Structure prediction request, 347 residues.
Amino acid sequence: MSRATRFLEACRREPSDCTPVWFMRQAGRYQAEYRELRKKHSIIDLCKTPELAAEVTMLPVRQMDVDAAIIFGDLMLPLEGIGVSYRLEENVGPVIDEPIRDEAQLERLRPIEPRRDVPYLLDALSMVRRELDGKIPLIGFGGAPFTLAAYMIEGKGSRDYRQTKTFMFTRPDLWERLMEHLSTMAVTYLSAQVEAGAQVVQIFDSWIGALSPADYRDYVQPHMKKLFAGLSNIGVPVIHFGTGSAMFLDLMAEAGGDVIGADWRIPLDEAWKRIGHDRAIQGNLDPTVLFAPFEKVAEKSQAVLEEAGGRPGHIFNLGHGILPGTPVETVRRLVDFVHERTARSSA
Prediction:
């Protein structure tokens, strides 16, 4: 057992030599090298130029002893292929030019064809897989149907998701059609990433915390179940992550996923009870802790490890992505800390 295998072992709840570590947004604005690239290239250019996306993906792998790489990209990338125009605005995020408001717009949505619509992503995955050369696994990812639907309906980030919920409650027929389309797209999109070289895929439901447990069960979970059923034969572990989801982690686990991600709003041991110990778990240090002195980082991280209890199937991660301005040295020391504190004898 080694760095090359410990992440996949944890996904399967198998014993490993130590707890694996990787971070959401482990490549990004907290890195000086990334900021230098951004002076020359827009985010979308980085995503759509395979050589640049591969370079950004590899930055944290070269800087620290993380146990997995995650391809650099954006949740919005597949939407262009189905006929949704968007742009990525600095300090705003994705902006949809024509938010979904009526049936006619749904009629115009196309099925995704990954080789036609996101060839740059597939090429970047293949490049990174070759460069990693088996040293650590490569993660692909995509947005969950609810989160993508919310972007498409709101038009951009929202505080209350009023447009999305109004659409969901008042036009359940159109909501069903939109979620069905996005679920089918996700299966095709993620399957193509596996064919291109991804050894694990993660589904991000970044906005799912806007819902109550009852609304998640009624309006989202059926589509997530279909999505995971569609991914059942892709041959790689699937991570299911949502923010603000502490109150319905059990419903997320029912929907599917080999690994369930927990954010920092719930203790890891309580989260594991809710999802069941027959699933692996990922998480869940508060990203803001990384701005504290390392003694505090170590204290909080040790608490997460103690909540995991040394059981096979824990993947150490933050409860969401690394924040801009996070000290790179702190991230590096945290990786080493987790590995050292959880090292298991091979005897």
